[in-house]
Design goal:
CATH class of one domain: Mainly Beta
Bound molecules: deoxyuridine-5'-triphosphate, magnesium ion
Distance between the termini: 37 Å
Structural class: mainly beta
Number of helices: 2
Helix content: under 10%
Strand order of the largest sheet: 2-11-6-8
CATH superfamily of one domain: Deoxyuridine triphosphatase (dUTPase)
CATH architecture of one domain: Distorted Sandwich
Length: 171
């Protein structure tokens, strides 16, 4: 059984901007549009306005995620993915897009969908400083400790480019 939706107050800063809505039942994110047209050359970035502001309930945050279609088709990413919208933030939600395509420009028209907003519950923590942390199976292992990429193993790996080969070999 699905839980009841969480009520979020929303202000439209542009009278014509659509209220974000889920595309399908079960979707995690609601699409965000840009209210300004923009053209980004290869490697260029821009902070685009979405025309909406929200008041999230305490204990929640919203995360600005990329759209996979834009990423796959045009090489558009979010510089700070995922962007974090704090519960206390009342300003306009903005999206920091970057065109990662090395050759092609990308153009956004007003009301093009540029990102998606995922609202989640977030925990508040209290930090307790200690001299030693409890042990664990992973301990300090990370950054490829379970089977690194050839490029991370240095010249002895035989490649000067990033490769996923050594991960594949482990399968
Ligand atoms: O993609 C994003 C990320 C952030 N924000 C807004 C909401 C968020 O609550 C506020 C601050 O974001 P963040 O804490 O990531 O930025 P900061 O550089 O640490 O700014 P600040 O010093 O204001 O916290 O900016 C957006 O509109 N879009
Ligand atoms: Mg901050």
């Amino acid at each position: 059984m699905s839980r009841a939706p969480v009520d979020v107050l929303l202000r439209r800063l542009d009278p014509d901007v659509p209220v974000p809505a889920y595309g399908h039942p079960g979707d995690a994110g609601t699409d965000l549009v840009t209210t300004e047209a923009a053209e980004l050359g290869p490697g260029e970035r821009a902070v685009l306005p979405t025309g909406i502001a929200v008041a999230l309930p305490d204990g929640y945050a919203a995360f600005v995620h990329p759209r996979s279609g834009l990423a796959a088709r045009c090489g558009v990413a979010l510089v700070n993915a995922p962007g974090t919208v704090d519960a206390g933030y009342r300003g306009e939600i903005k999206v920091i897009v970057v065109n990662l395509d090395p050759r092609e420009s990308v153009r956004f028209e007003r009301f093009d969908r540029i990102a998606q907003l995922v609202v989640q519950q977030v925990e508040k923590v209290r930090f307790h400083e200690v001299a030693e942390l409890p042990g664990s199976a992973r301990a300090g292992g990370g950054f490829g400790s379970t089977g690194g990429h050839a490029a991370m193993d240095g010249p002895a790996g035989g490649h000067e480019y990033a490769s996923v080969a050594s991960d594949r070999e482990g399968q």
